[in-house]
Structure formats: structure tokens, C-alpha cells
Design goal:
Largest sheet: 2 strands, antiparallel
Structural class: alpha+beta
Strand content: 15-25%
Number of helices: 6
Order of helices and strands: HHHHEEEEHH
Radius of gyration: 26 Å
Distance between the termini: 73 Å
Oligomer: single chain
Strand order of the largest sheet: 1-2
Number of strands: 4
Shape: flat
């Protein structure tokens, strides 16, 4: 009898909670604001519009007065801003923030030129396993060549 009353009580509490969650957004917002759900992640946001950038750099971008701009477009390229921890050659650990390209699996090395790392995409496409990554890591540590 105790088990049945416990189950009925849990079902009523769960149903009431679900009703409040779906029909009262102020309660849902309060819960999400006060309890960490782990769904928040940092993003890069647009600070200046394309028109503002083009007007501020008009002399550098256009050759003369007879030239005009095309219509500005906002393109979104998927990158993940990641906080990472890695080990150095001296078995020390360091932390950094990196941009990781979600299209090709490569890390952005320089944000001024958007130069990326290379090789990880090839490993993904080839279906490399853990042992293959050990070989690649050993080659990278020895400037690309090794002697057996």
C-alpha cells in the first residue's frame, strides 16, 4: 500500500511540474536563471554591420569614386569557441581558448589571416584510430621524420 501511494504521489508531482513548466514561462525562466543547466556556451557576435565596416574603410576598399560596393551579406561560418587544456613537451599543462572549425575539424591558428591547422581533417576522413594518432603525434614531435 505504501508503494502505491508513493508512486501516485510521484506521478502527481511530476505531472504538476510538467504542467507548470509548459504553461508558466516565468517559473521556467526563474528555474533556468537560478540553476545551471549546462546549455550555455560562449559565441562570437557581430559588433559592427557590414555597411559600417565598409564606410569606415572606404578609401582602402574602393579604388576611386566611380566604384561602388555590392550589397553586404552576413555569412555564418560554424566555429566553436573552446576552452582547452593541453600538455606541453615538458609534461606541463596549459590552458587556452581556441576557435575550432566545425566544417573541417581544423583549429584557427591566426585570426588575422584565418590560417588553420592542417591534418586533422585528413585523419577524420581516413577513419584514423588511436594508434594512427599516436604515429601522427610522434611524427609532429620529431619534425615530420623518424628513424626506427
Amino acid at each position: 500500500m505504501r508503494l502505491i501511494s508513493l508512486l501516485v504521489t510521484l506521478v502527481l508531482i511530476g505531472g504538476g511540474g510538467l504542467y507548470v513548466w509548459k504553461n508558466h514561462p516565468e517559473v521556467r525562466n526563474w528555474v533556468l536563471a537560478n540553476f545551471d543547466t549546462g546549455t550555455e556556451f560562449p559565441t562570437l557576435e557581430v559588433r559592427f554591420s557590414g555597411d559600417q565596416i565598409m564606410e569606415a574603410n572606404r578609401k582602402e576598399l574602393l579604388k576611386g569614386e566611380q566604384y561602388t560596393y555590392r550589397r553586404a551579406e552576413l555569412l555564418f561560418v560554424p566555429y566553436a569557441l573552446m576552452e582547452v587544456k593541453f600538455s606541453t613537451r615538458g609534461n606541463q599543462t596549459r590552458e587556452a581558448v581556441i576557435l575550432w572549425g566545425l566544417e573541417d575539424g581544423e583549429m584557427v591558428v591566426d585570426t588575422a589571416t584565418w590560417k588553420k591547422s592542417h591534418g586533422f581533417e585528413d585523419c577524420l576522413n581516413a577513419g584514423a584510430d588511436r594508434n594512427d594518432y599516436k604515429v601522427v603525434t610522434a611524427l609532429a614531435q620529431n619534425s615530420g621524420s623518424m628513424r626506427l
